[in-house]
Amino acid sequence: MTEQLQTILRAMRTLSARDKLELLHVLSSDLHETALLEDSSAAFWNPQSIDTLSSLHLTSVVSDIRSLAVDFWPSDESAHDINAFISSRRHKNLVNR
């Protein structure tokens, strides 16, 4: 056991029971976060294949583009109107940065 750890243990022994429980909670949370970070890191460096990911997310291939059509577009708005709206919002967002 290192000298640093022995010093920490001596200091810990002087704490009240409540403070020891709080210390245990903090250590447990820290260990949990470290384990999650290690798991995330391992997953990042060992990515899954596209086939595996697509099977997990239940994706499907679009075989007919008409299946993507929607019927909720307002009849009094043209494609030009929506393009003008999007352009104005983009311009506003750029100006406000």
What descriptors fit this protein?
about 100 residues, 4 helices, elongated
Structure description:
The mean pLDDT is 88. With 97 residues, the protein is mainly alpha-helical. The protein has a domain at 3-53. It is elongated and about 75 Å long. The chain contains 4 helices and no strands.
Question: For this entry, what is the oligomeric state of its chains?
Answer: single chain
Give the mean pLDDT. 88
**Rg (C-alpha, Å):** 28 Å
**What string, H for helix and E for strand, traces the elements in order?**
HHHH
Assess the beta-strand content as a share of residues. under 5%
Low-confidence stretches: none
Shape descriptor reads elongated
Helix content: 55-70%
Sheet of most strands:
none
End-to-end Cα distance, whole Å, is 54 Å
Q: Please, how many helices?
A: 4
Number of DSSP strands? 0
Given helix and strand content, the structural type is mainly alpha
What's the SSE blueprint?
Layout: H1 3-13, H2 17-45, H3 50-56, H4 79-95
Brief account:
The chain has 97 residues and is an all-alpha fold. It contains four helices and no strands.
